[in-house]
Amino acid sequence: MLEVERLCVAFRGQTGPREVLSGVSLSMRQGEILGLVGESGSGKSVTALAIMGLLGEQGRISGGRIRLDGRELTTLNPSDIRRLRGSCMAMIFQEPMTSLNPLLRVGLQIEETLHAHLPLSRAEARTRAIQLLGEVGIPAPETRVDAYPHQFSGGMRQRVMIAIAMACAPRLLIADEPTTALDVTIQAQILALMRRLRAERGTAILLITHDLGVIAQMSDRVAVMYAGEIVEAAPAGELLHSPAHPYTRLLLASLPTTRRRAPRLPVIEGQMPGPGTIASGCRFRMRCPMAVPRCTDETPVLAPFQSGRFVRCWRAGDIAT
Fold this sequence. Notes:
Elements: E1 2-13, E2 16-28, E3 33-37, H1 44-52, E4 59-68, E5 71-72, H2 78-84, E6 89-92, H3 96-99, H4 106-117, H5 122-135, H6 141-144, H7 154-165, E7 172-176, H8 184-201, E8 204-208, H9 212-218, E9 221-226, E10 229-235, H10 236-241, H11 246-253, H12 293-297, E11 303-304, E12 310-311, H13 316-320
Parallel strand pairs: 3-8, 3-9, 6-7, 7-8
Antiparallel strand pairs: 1-2, 1-4, 4-5, 9-10, 10-12, 11-12
């Protein structure tokens, strides 16, 4: 359903364009949940914004393809891709308080999406907005439809965002950190809602998160990003139990666990290279405990590794054994 092939994205800087995504490739089937993980700054949200056509004036797709249901998105003009946003693909943004208009009632914000894509009267759109609020678990939706965003809790605002995103039943839903800053009870409710949307509507979900626990609960497959590249992609169970890239191994090792007691959690030493500072070779080599001279001399490619798995590492075979 979704194919991203060797996607490159650059942003305008004072000294010229700086590439922030380099050759990102991923694909999704209908009804699949793909988890996208990595440190802050690895390119997860930029990938999502590129798919949605929301890079802004400073960003541009400098290479690669994005196809949704076989339709090439990178060559569409702004009005054509605007028609696809909300109807065929939608996005739950990271912070609902800054994504919702504080001056408009939430019902009007849902109705705006409905009017943009469906031939509904004002009364029909309001009825559908109330129905959507009820579907995402907002109590007393007939009353809350006329409330403002500040009158909702963080979890309720996130539910409103999901209602807006799902208003026209898009085939692709991009969820960028949908459970950030939510308590565990509300987080569980949001995740259950997303699973129900997938089960009932066959919606494919690209789930962006730092929380590997959420990934374990939700994802069918996982792609790991580092410094603007996909470094590993695999079925969720296989990646979590037997990671093939040193970066993935270190991410998993940094998680707290009840099986070991230690005064300090393991950390990944060093920092990710910034845009414009990346040289040839493996981008993770300066932080990698398994780096060898080949990692500096040659740039690894994302290559097949075992059945249904891909990894960008010269030493993937050594890690697996």
